[in-house]
Amino acid sequence: MSDPDSTYTVNPFSLNEDSEKVVNGLKAIDPDAIITPFPFWVDKPFFRYLHGESV
Q: Measured between alpha carbons, how far is residue 20 from residues 2, 7, 25, 40, 42 in Å?
């Protein structure tokens, strides 16, 4: 996610099935933000982290 008025970018992570909710939530905060979702593969521990599992 980037903003034309800022030099910063934000790289939030979510599960594919939650992506639309995340994009909508970010657009509610800043409708002018540029949000470009893309899928990528992660290892099993990070996948479990995204599911809220600690182990």
A: 17, 25, 9, 15, 19
